[in-house]
Specification:
The protein is of the alpha/beta class and about 230 residues long. It is built from nine helices and seven strands; from the N terminus they run αβαααααβαββαβαββ. The protein has one domain: HAD superfamily/HAD-like (Rossmann fold). It is about 40% helix and about 20% strand. Strand 5, helix 9 and strand 6 form a beta-alpha-beta unit. The longest helix has 13 residues. The chain is globular and about 45 Å long.
Length: about 230
C-alpha cells in the first residue's frame, strides 16, 4: 500500500465511523418506493392522483402515504422482490462505495421514510446489516393496506440517534447522504452531509453538493475535511 493510500485509510478511520444513506431519490433513482409498490399492484392512476393532491398541498406527505398504503392491499412481498429489477433503477456504484467504506472501517446504514420492506431488499443486496424504514403492515406475506409505524417528520433522525447510541458512535462521527427535505434534520445533526441529485429544499443545508448517476463520485467528500492532503 502506498503512503498516500495508507494516510487516506488512517484519516478516514479517524474522521468518520458511520455513513447514513437515504433511499428514495438517493439510492433509487427512477421512482420512489411507495409509488413503486402501488404501480406493481395495478394502481398507477390512483397513486398519481394522490401525488397530485400532495403536490397541491391538499394532503400532507404522511397523509398521502397512508392513502397510498391502501392501494398496496393484497400485494405480496414475493412479487415486490420479483418485480424489483424490472422496475427499479438504482444509482451506479453502490457496491463499490459500501465495500470501500467497509475497508476504511466506516459502517453503512440505510434510513428511509419509505417502506421497510423495500429497504430490506436493498439492504440484503448490498450487505447492509441495518436498515430503517416505515413499517407497512404485512400479514401472510402480503400488504394489508395499513401502515403500522410511519417514521414521520422526526423518525429518520430518531433512528440514527438510536443506532449511534447502541453502537457507541457520536453523531459527530457520522456523514449523511440524501437528496430531499426529509434529510434536513439528519443533515443538521451530523458532522458532514452530502446532498446528491438534490431538491431545492436542500440548498444551503448540506456540506457538499453533487449531481451524478454514479455513487463513486462521493468518495472524495469523505476525506475532504480539515487540512487533509493526498
Amino acid at each position: 500500500m502506498r503512503a498516500g493510500q495508507l494516510y487516506i485509510k488512517e484519516y478516514m478511520s479517524n474522521t468518520f465511523k458511520l455513513a447514513c444513506f437515504d433511499m428514495d431519490g438517493t439510492i433509487i433513482r427512477n421512482t420512489n418506493s411507495v409509488r413503486y409498490l402501488c404501480i406493481i399492484n395495478g394502481m398507477e392512476e390512483q397513486v398519481m392522483r394522490i401525488e397530485h393532491m400532495e403536490d397541491a398541498g391538499q394532503v400532507s406527505w404522511i397523509e398521502a402515504d397512508h392513502m397510498k398504503a391502501q392501494l398496496m392491499k393484497g400485494l405480496c412481498i414475493e412479487e415486490v422482490k420479483h418485480q424489483f429489477d424490472k422496475s427499479i433503477h438504482l444509482i451506479s456504484g453502490i457496491d463499490f462505495v459500501i465495500d470501500y467504506l467497509m475497508q476504511q472501517g466506516i459502517r453503512s446504514i440505510l434510513i428511509t421514510s419509505g417502506p421497510i420492506q423495500v429497504a430490506r431488499i436493498i439492504g440484503e443486496r448490498f450487505s447492509l446489516k441495518t436498515v430503517y424504514g416505515s413499517d407497512y403492515q404485512v400479514i401472510n406475506g402480503c400488504f394489508t393496506g395499513k401502515i403500522t409505524s410511519h417514521l414521520g417528520e422526526d423518525g429518520k433522525l430518531d433512528c440514527l440517534r438510536s443506532y449511534c447510541q447502541n453502537n457507541d458512535i457520536s453523531l459527530n462521527d457520522c456523514i449523511a447522504i440524501g437528496d430531499s427535505s426529509s434529510d434536513i434534520d439528519i443533515f443538521r445533526a451530523v458532522r458532514k452531509s452530502i446532498a446528491i441529485n438534490y431538491s431545492d429544499a436542500l440548498k444551503g443545508r448540506a456540506s457538499e453538493y453533487i449531481n451524478t448517476e454514479n455513487l463513486k463520485d462521493i468518495v472524495n467528500f469523505f476525506v475532504r475535511d480539515g487540512d487533509f492532503k493526498q
